[in-house]
Design brief:
mainly alpha, Growth Hormone, Chain: A, 0% strand, globular, membrane, MFS
């Protein structure tokens, strides 16, 4: 392990600034999860399954909107792509706390659709600013920054809900997120490298000439072959050519078996994190001390921070699938907790693998997908993550309402572990069949 890589990366001003902006933009949403749950359970007097349904609709909206937002960033630039998010965040979350549960469901879906795409934008920009092994460290630093935010965000949300009101808390979330979006637009981090933006698209001769001119004399012949192959592939993927089926398949030509496996990891992580999140809220609230939520979230996120620091300093990669399996199995003992402190302590083993799972998956996407499609790919990665969240939150809530708070953690660990094992088996089967052909 080499911890000096953190110092070297943080010495790069754009990287340091991007991580700071990402932290500020994420903080309101870090408080929103707890506020929404407590708003439905305490203010609207509904159950945890109802709260899980609201969270599910938010995440379904995010899952549908993230690829579209990512493509908009790729096509029109960051500033124009963020305008709808800034407006909707300010309006929707100022209105949502004042409506009935039924209207809250509608607004939750719309709010999720136009959520500020902080995750995909930050990861896409880090993929441009950092290359090679530095990407692992950069994505790990972003995961660590996220954990720091989630150490404080839920605690602030719980304090706002219990000392003031969930109505005030959710309104502040919307206004703060809109302000963060304006700050992100002002900063305007790079989402495409200058070299890539300078190359012409779908022009074989121009692309070949550009590469050959830049290549040394003894490498010009292989450079011609590589440039022609790349340009011809881009021309074949031109959505303006061919019929509807051709354009649709060309639009997803970047999706390979390996990319699909990473998306399954993201969905599994979403199931695991959302179920654990609902379980923590239910377990602590059942003790009659909801104000202690911040203790558990702080310990859980601190463990993830430590795990992320260790993983980012490692000199080799670990499969995100194996990391997710380990995290799922280590989450199961949380169901044995009897009070706030025991829950906090039991959250440490699983928490150690949280940041490494997300860092490894993001790094894998950046390695597998070309820069021209990386914004959209990160959007789909975020969609997979939030789809898992949408599945995990209501199912865990239903289990908690039926059996008890401990069942949330049992469901979380078992569901994520089964997703990993089924995916590993399916991948092995596809690989064997491909080998036979």
């Amino acid at each position: 392990m080499n911890f000096s890589v953190y110092r070297d990366l943080l010495s790069i001003v754009p990287v340091r600034r991007l991580l700071l902006v990402g932290m500020l933009a994420r903080f309101p949403h870090a408080a929103a999860g707890v506020l929404l749950t407590l708003h439905v359970v305490l203010t609207l007097d509904k159950g945890y399954a109802a709260a899980g349904a609201v969270a599910a609709l938010v995440t379904i909206g995010i899952a549908v909107g993230a690829p579209w937002r990512g493509r908009r960033v790729d096509n029109v630039g960051l500033r124009r792509a963020l305008i709808p998010s800034v407006i909707s965040e300010a309006v929707i979350w100022s209105v949502a706390p004042h409506v009935s549960y039924e209207w809250l469901l509608v607004l939750a879906l719309i709010g999720g659709l136009f959520t500020l795409p902080v995750f995909s934008v930050v990861r896409q920009s880090l993929g441009v600013l950092a290359t090679g092994d530095k990407r692992r460290t950069a994505f790990t630093l972003d995961s660590i920054a996220t954990e720091i935010v989630f150490m404080g965000g839920p605690a602030v949300g719980a304090v706002l809900a219990t000392s003031l009101s969930t109505v005030v808390g959710l309104t502040l979330v919307g206004l703060s997120t809109a302000a963060a979006g304006l700050f992100l637009m002002w900063f305007n981090p790079p989402t495409r490298s200058a070299a890539t933006g300078a190359l012409p698209e779908h022009d074989v001769e121009a692309a070949t000439a550009a590469v050959v001119t830049a290549a040394p004399a003894h490498l010009r012949e292989p450079a011609v072959e590589l440039a022609q192959a790349a340009a011809e592939q881009a021309e074949a993927e031109d959505p303006s050519r061919g019929g509807i089926l051709h354009r649709f398949s060309a639009g997803f030509s970047w999706v390979t078996l390996s990319v699909a496996v990473v998306f399954v990891v993201a969905a599994g992580a979403g199931v695991l994190l959302a179920s654990s999140d609902v379980g923590i809220v239910a377990m602590v609230e059942s003790t009659g001390n909801p104000g202690e939520l911040g203790i558990v979230f702080a310990v859980w996120c601190a463990a993830s921070l430590v795990g992320g620091l260790v993983y980012g300093a490692m000199n080799r990669k670990i499969s995100p699938m194996l990391l997710l399996l380990g995290m799922a199995l280590l989450t199961l003992p949380m169901s044995l907790a009897t009070d706030t402190m025991s829950l906090a302590l039991l959250s440490i083993p699983g928490g150690l693998l949280c940041a490494p799972v997300l860092s490894a998956a993001s790094e894998r996407v950046a390695d597998l997908v070309s820069e021209e499609r990386r914004g959209e790919a990160m959007g789909w990665y975020g969609s997979a993550l939030t789809t898992g969240t949408a599945i995990g939150a209501p199912l865990a809530g239903a289990a908690i309402d039926t059996i008890g708070p401990a069942s949330g953690f049992a469901f979380a660990g078992t569901a994520a572990a089964l997703m990993v094992l089924i995916t590993l088996g399916a991948r092995a089967l596809v690989t064997r069949r491909s080998a036979r052909v």
